[in-house]
Write a structure and sequence with these properties.
By secondary structure, the chain is mainly alpha-helical. The chain contains 13 helices and no strands. This is PSMD12/CSN4-like N-terminal domain-containing protein.
C-alpha cells in the first residue's frame, strides 16, 4: 500500500471512529497514532499534533496510564514546537508537568523530551534566564538517559560517547546564548558564574562572548557580529522600544563595563 493510500485509509478510519468515539476510544487512539506517524513523516507537524490532540486522554471509559498520557502530551508539544507554535506546545507541556513530576514516574525518555520542550518554550517566549537554566540541565544529561531516548540500538554505536558530548555541548551553547541575552541581575550573575566555571564551556562557539560578559569587559562590534551568527530569528526580533534583545543586552553591558573601567582608573594612572 502506497503512503497516499495509507493516508486515505487512515482518514476514512478516523472519520468513521470519531462518530462513535465513546464506544471505540482505544481503536480511535491507535488509528490517530498511525495517522500522526504518516503526517509526521511528511513533516506536517501541525496536522500530526492536531490529530493526536483529539485522543481522549481524560476519559473514564478506559484505564489510561500516566506514562501514556505524559508520552502523548509531550509528543504533541514537540510537534507544535516544530511548527513554531509555542503557545499550543506550552499548553500540553503544562498538562504533562504534574504527571512527570511524580516520584514514581521513571520514563527517562519522556522526562528528557519534557525538559527539552520547556527549554525551547522559555527560549521562544524570550524568558532567557529560565531557558538558560533548562538548557544547562540538558547539557548534563548522562549516557543512561541518552540511551533511553535513542533506544537500545544506540548502545551498539561505536561513537555513542562522542554523540553524547556533541549533544551536550550543543545544549550548553544554547544555554550560553540565552544567559547572554537574559536581563542583568543577581540571578543571571549566578547562572553566568556557574556556566563560566564549567570547564566544558570553553569548547562552545559562544565562549568568547560569555567570557566577556562574565569578566565585565567591553564587547566590540566585530565580537557582537560574530555572536549574532549563532542566534535564531526570534532572538533577533525587535522589542517594543525598537532595539533587538541583543542590542539592549550589549548596550547595558558595555555601559556597565565602561563605567567600571573608568571607576578603576586612579589619578596616579592618569
Amino acid at each position: 500500500m502506497s503512503p497516499a493510500q495509507k493516508k486515505e485509509l487512515g482518514n476514512l478510519c478516523l472519520a468513521k471512529l470519531k462518530a462513535r468515539v465513546s464506544s471505540f476510544e482505544e481503536q480511535f487512539s491507535i488509528a490517530s497514532e498511525h495517522m500522526a506517524d504518516i503526517l509526521q513523516g511528511e513533516e506536517d507537524w501541525k496536522g500530526a499534533a492536531d490529530i493526536l490532540s483529539q485522543i481522549p486522554l481524560t476519559s473514564s471509559q478506559r484505564n489510561i496510564s500516566d506514562e501514556y498520557k505524559a508520552k502523548m502530551y509531550v509528543r504533541i508539544a514537540m510537534l507544535y514546537l516544530e511548527d513554531d507554535n509555542e503557545v499550543s506546545a506550552e499548553a500540553f507541556v503544562h498538562r504533562s508537568h504534574n504527571i512527570i513530576g511524580k516520584p514514581d514516574f521513571t520514563n527517562l525518555q519522556v522526562k528528557f523530551q519534557h525538559q527539552a520542550c520547556r527549554a525551547r518554550i522559555y527560549d521562544a517566549k524570550r524568558k532567557f534566564l529560565d531557558a538558560a537554566r533548562h538548557y544547562y540541565e540538558l547539557s548534563q544529561v548522562g549516557k543512561a538517559t541518552v540511551l533511553a531516548v535513542m533506544g537500545e540500538e544506540a548502545a551498539k554505536l561505536s561513537n555513542i560517547d562522542e554523540m553524547i558530548e556533541t549533544q551536550n555541548l550543543d545544549a550548553l551553547n544554547k544555554a550560553a546564548i540565552c544567559v547572554v541575552l537574559a536581563p542583568a541581575g543577581p540571578d543571571r550573575s549566578r547562572t553566568l558564574a556557574m556556566m563560566y566555571k564549567d570547564e566544558r564551556t570553553s569548547k562552545v562557539k559562544t565562549f568568547n562572548m560569555l567570557q566577556k560578559i562574565y569578566l565585565e569587559r567591553v564587547v566590540r562590534a566585530p565580537e557582537i557580529e560574530e555572536f549574532q551568527k549563532e542566534l535564531r530569528p526570534h532572538q533577533m526580533a525587535e522589542t517594543s522600544d525598537g532595539f533587538t534583545v541583543l542590542q539592549k543586552a550589549m548596550i547595558e553591558h558595555n555601559l556597565f563595563a565602561a563605567a567600571k573601567m573608568y571607576k578603576n582608573i586612579t589619578f596616579k594612572e592618569l
